[in-house]
Amino acid sequence: MSGTYLGMPSFPKAAKDAVHNVTLRANLRHATHTIRDKRAKAVAELEDWALLREAGKQIKDHTLRHLDRYLEQLESAVTAAGGTVHWAADAEEANRIVADLVKATGESEVVKVKSMATQEIGLNEALKAEGISAYETDLAELIVQLGDDRPSHILVPAIHRNRAEIRDIFERKMGSWGRPAPDGLSDSPAELAEAARLHLRERFLRAKVGISGANFMVAETGTLVVFESEGNGRMCLTLPETLISVVGIEKVVPTWRDLEVFLQTLPRSSTAERMNPYTSMWTGTADADGPRTFHLVLLDNGRTGTLADEVGRQALRCIRCSACLNVCPVYERAGGHAYGSVYPGPIGAILSPQLRGIQSEIDASLPYASSLCGACYEVCPVAIDIPEVLLHLREKVVEQGGKGHRLEKAAIKAAGWILDHPAALAAVEKTASGTRGLYPGRPPGAGAWTADRELPELPAQSFRDWWKKNRT
């Protein structure tokens, strides 16, 4: 699977190619508009949505302020319940831990629950290098894996594919990965889902090792929680003899009661459901049911560095709902691949540069992958002020002398010169005043983005002219 994003061009270059892909834009527009419209209706059902949003924000902020204490509490609780906790400072260490754990079982294949953390560290590729096959079991992740593709959306990784493309992928690739697609497969959702179900069933029944992430970890009890809609997660979490969970350290919450908030906000913000079909929770191991061995790999990989930034740390509140992607006009047109990260869209534009640093061309460009319209902040269920963080990161890019900002620096330099020369400033003001009738009512070239915005009206005369006439 081609899962690495290393060497990808900057966002403007990648987006330029994406916007000319007519099929991609049609797929994205249809999918994002459908999801966001359903989400709006689901959220409107709750009169206390604003209070739930604020509660989620406060729970996350409190946890991040005391992250060391809650992680230690989590480790103690998981250990007491029969699990083993491993700490991974970066992707390389996390991959080595998981590979060693799998090899210790004597197995050469694993089944996986959809996990952003394992995509972030390139686990599938690392396991392949060790002779271990990792099989994705989420339907969209399966499509991406069979198509030798990259995910382009947090919730719906294959959102850039339409039904006809998916059918072609199944017909061409399923047979080389396991059970082939049925003869005469159509592109109806029911037939595609049934083909995937039959293909995956033999994986579930044969696998001895499962790998997952987690949406939340409860420090109080050592419980891990996975939200999903298909049931594949439940199969991976209960059937294998060994379960390995790779989870970012920011996913911890203090108490069991804190889940009450996120059980309401996450499903509505992601799949537009009142509750997700499958909520799997497990605490350590049990003799009578489930895996006999459980390992939890706690992943840092840039998170403590992000935590040290007072403005940027709010990105760690993210609960991976993807609501910000579905309302973003930039994502809708450019698609997820242009972001060069497993975290696309507005949240990716602020999370990836912090986790990976802004030294590379792609990461230095991501804070500029936004119109700053603020729609992402309005829908975020934990109130991450993404526009604020974008501006904060832009400042950092400029301070580090990032490439591609010569025009911005030139404009600032020109403005500084004009403000330092009163005669030049007066000439500019006089020209602007004399040509006011030529200005459009709305900024040109922005289309639907400025449908509800108008340029402010210029006054009849400048303050300088008014002062000359009225100062006496």
UniProtKB/TrEMBL annotation:
Lineage: superkingdom: Bacteria
Keyword terms of this UniProt record: 4Fe-4S, Electron transport, Iron, Iron-sulfur, Metal-binding, Repeat, Transport
Domain Lactate utilization protein B C-terminal: 394-470
Domain 4Fe-4S ferredoxin-type: start-end pairs: 315-384
InterPro entries: 4Fe4S_Fe-S-bd, 4Fe4S_Fe_S_CS, FTHF_cligase-like_sf, Helical_ferredxn, LUD_dom, LutB/LldF, LutB_C, NagB/RpiA_transferase-like
Keyword Cell membrane part of the UniProt annotation: no
Domain LUD: 71-298
Keyword 4Fe-4S: yes
Family matches, as SUPFAM superfamilies: 4Fe-4S ferredoxins, NagB/RpiA/CoA transferase-like
Annotated Pfam families: Fer4_8, LUD_dom, LutB_C
Name used for this protein in its record: LutB/LldF family L-lactate oxidation iron-sulfur protein
